[in-house]
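Shipment paperwork, digital attachment
Item: protein structure file
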Amino acid sequence: MPRSVSGVEMRKRQAAHIEAPPQAPGQPRPNTCCLCWCGCCKCLWNEDRMERSERQTCTKMDSIEATEEQQASLEEVLAWSRSFELMLRSLEGREVFREFLRSEYSEDNLLFWLACEDLKKETNSTVVDEKARIIYEDYVSILSPKEVSLDSRVREGINQTLAEPSNLMYEEAQFQIYTLMHRDSFPRFLNSSVYRDLLANRRRACLDT
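Attachment content:
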């Protein structure tokens, strides 16, 4: 089946997991801004910023340290089935999960999450501005073919920060995509041939040694 058709179907299925709060009847349209990166003059701004959602002290979005690692052992591959976060912290885990997501036309979810991880580590304001702009154009803009599924509240919050980007401006969106991958894609990954074949290969390697 062509990517364009399957990709649309997959986005619709994933979008069903994200509830967007309805707009109250008679609510006035916020001001529009023509300085947005998408260039569509439709980004919404409110005078009053939304209150930040309360977060746990330790979230699932702690930055991954880039480390050189050897091939994951059988024990490590087995441990992935018990911890999504542990799999994401493994270079090989991310690569094999990405391979699976590519087969479901949802690879962009992981790429967005990784781009946000990279942005959070950046301290140079000029680089932050550039990386934040690229992330918006690639994964948030409604004009992008790689747009990820975000609810309207989170998307509006991002639009409000476009004038003054920060390395944490996508934090809530990143957590939403993390949750989507964890609850929707990860269970199917564990039952996929991609993961089962990797597990079988590691078991054979252990028997051969």
